[in-house]
């Protein structure tokens, strides 16, 4: 966490210095000139900053929460600093090698090969290398989608086949090795949309059924998924019978129900940035039998987190941010657009079960990747960039 925090600070400092000291040719059309994402990100950041005026959270906690939301600035920095598609491809290659290293390390842990650089406390039990199996499952699902959509960029005679193989290995890691149910849900969503894009237009309506078909097939074929889904059912039954949130699903249901109550109490402006934890504990205090929550908590749901802090406008603001990014992807060539849209879908699904943008590590992963993909798709092509395969326009 310390390394990530220092790296983000250095990125912002170096990024601002580069922008101030570097002059672009006047003929260059910058992607920010035609993008909606930077406006949406700045609007979100200033909205959270403005909510400091009425936040019920202690000042230190409110400022810490604002900093966590501020990681969205990285998206703009990536779009500003990457000057053309050639640089974007180099950045994509570096990013891909990092994800490949993560996947290889997780595979080594699964095969009980010593991995000295694995720092997670879940390394030996759940094969998570640096963070948690929850984060790693989401990351591997997104990496599989990137390998599939960018397989035409892979160098060498067998580059495409190797990219597809890596995608399959990443999916296998999600479905048969890791325990993260959110990662499995994200992988099913990304598989469904990838299959839809490969179908003729007249057959694409089947995408409505694809997630259920894939889930049933995986439930029958993967003991890991069957065990985790059965556990969800058991935990939900236990919560509904005694209202004691002592399990993963029970905790989420308790967090979500309390968050909805908090939004109902202040629906127009919310309780301010950083307010979820003190407000949740206030409700818990009204029910003496329920335990307080400590630390920098969140409701394990990004939509509700924004709703508690900024009210219903906060939820609409988060949806607006996703839509602005989606709108920018519609200007891209098809493979780049599909990769970016898959990442957005993964974020939207993951945020239903966790605060995947607010949280450290997984939030940084999404911000860096979205900024990179937007820069890749919106920057001008260069002579060194490989030719794109012929596809129909992205939708």
How would the blueprint of this fold be written?
Elements: H1 2-21, H2 37-50, H3 59-69, H4 73-81, H5 85-110, H6 123-126, H7 133-149, H8 159-176, H9 181-198, H10 210-221, H11 223-242, H12 248-265, H13 276-286, H14 302-310, H15 312-329, H16 334-350, H17 362-378
Helix pairs in contact: 1-4, 2-15, 4-17, 5-7, 5-8, 5-17, 7-8, 7-9, 7-16, 9-10, 9-16, 10-11, 11-12, 12-13, 12-14, 14-15, 15-16, 16-17
Explain what this protein looks like in three dimensions:
- The chain is an all-alpha fold and 395 residues long.
- It has two domains: 34-81 and 250-381, no CATH class; 123-242, no CATH class.
- It is 66% helix and 0% strand.
- The two termini are 38 Å apart.
- The mean pLDDT is 84.
**Averaged pLDDT, please?**
84
Number of strands: 0
Number of domains: 2
β-sheet strand percentage:
under 5%
Q: Low-confidence segments, ≥5 residues, pLDDT <50?
A: none
- What oligomeric state do the depicted chains represent? single chain
Largest sheet: none
- Outline, from the CA principal axes? globular
Overall radius of gyration? 21 Å
**What's the end-to-end separation, in Å?**
38 Å
Order of helices and strands: HHHHHHHHHHHHHHHHH
State the helix count. 17
Helix/strand-derived category reads: mainly alpha
Helix content: 55-70%
